[in-house]
C-alpha cells in the first residue's frame, strides 16, 4: 500500500514566494517590453534623484528578459508542486544568485535578499527534504 505525504507548509510557502516573484517579473517585463518604441531616449529616475537616459532597445531587451525570468519562475513553481527532485537543487541555487545580485543593488537589493533568505530557510527544513526525496 502506498502512503501519500501531504505537501508541507514550507514547500507551499516557497512555491507562493516564487509565484509572487514570477508574476511580478512577468508584469514588470510586460510593462517595460511593451512601452512605445520611439527613436528618442527615455529618462529614468534613479535612486539619488538624477535621471539616466537609456535607449528604447535597452528597455525592450530588459523587458523581454524579465518576461522570460517570470515564466521560468512560474515553471519552477509547477516543478515544486509536482514534487520534481531537481527543483530542490534549482531553488537554493537561484536563491543564492538572487541574494548576490541583491547585495550588488543595495539599498533596493533588500527587496530581493529578504524573501530569498526565507526561501533558503524553508527549502532546507526536514519536511521539505522529505517531500522532495519521497517518490
How would you describe the overall organization of this protein?
The protein is built from 5 helices and 2 strands, in the order H-E-E-H-H-H-H. The mean pLDDT is 84. Helices cover 67% and strands 6% of the residues. With 135 residues, it is mainly alpha-helical. Strands 1-2 form a two-stranded antiparallel ribbon. It has helices at residues 9-33, 56-81, 87-104, 110-123, 126-133; strands spanning 42-45, 51-54. The protein has one domain (10-129).
What layout of secondary structure does this protein have?
Blueprint: H1 9-33, E1 42-45, E2 51-54, H2 56-81, H3 87-104, H4 110-123, H5 126-133
Antiparallel strand pairs: 1-2
Helix pairs in contact: 1-2, 1-4, 3-4
Largest sheet: 2 strands, antiparallel
Shape: elongated
Which residues sit in consecutive blocks of at least 5 with pLDDT less than 50? none
What is the topology, as strand order, of the major beta sheet?
A: 1-2
Task: Give the N-to-C terminal Cα separation.
Answer: 13 Å
- Helical content stands at 55-70%
Topology, number of strands? 2
Classify the secondary structure makeup into a structural class: mainly alpha
> What string, H for helix and E for strand, traces the elements in order?
HEEHHHH
Which radius of gyration do the C-alpha atoms yield?
18 Å
Keywords:
135 residues, mainly alpha, two-stranded antiparallel ribbon, 5 helices, 2 strands, elongated
Short account of what is shown:
This protein is mainly alpha-helical. The chain has helices at 9-33, 56-81, 87-104, 110-123, 126-133; strands at residues 42-45, 51-54.
Amino acid at each position: 500500500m502506498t502512503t501519500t505525504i501531504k505537501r508541507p507548509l514550507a514547500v507551499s510557502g516557497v512555491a507562493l514566494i516564487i509565484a509572487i516573484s514570477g508574476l511580478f517579473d512577468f508584469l514588470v517585463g510586460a510593462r517595460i517590453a511593451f512601452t512605445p518604441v520611439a527613436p528618442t531616449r527615455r529618462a529614468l529616475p534613479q535612486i539619488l534623484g538624477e535621471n539616466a537616459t537609456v535607449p528604447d532597445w535597452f528597455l525592450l531587451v530588459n523587458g523581454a528578459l524579465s518576461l522570460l525570468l517570470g515564466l521560468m519562475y512560474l515553471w519552477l513553481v509547477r516543478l515544486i508542486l509536482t514534487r520534481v527532485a531537481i527543483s530542490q537543487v534549482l531553488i537554493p541555487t537561484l536563491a543564492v544568485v538572487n541574494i548576490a545580485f541583491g547585495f550588488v543593488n543595495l539599498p533596493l537589493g533588500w527587496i530581493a535578499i529578504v524573501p530569498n533568505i526565507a526561501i533558503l530557510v524553508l527549502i532546507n527544513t526536514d519536511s521539505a527534504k522529505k517531500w522532495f526525496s519521497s517518490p
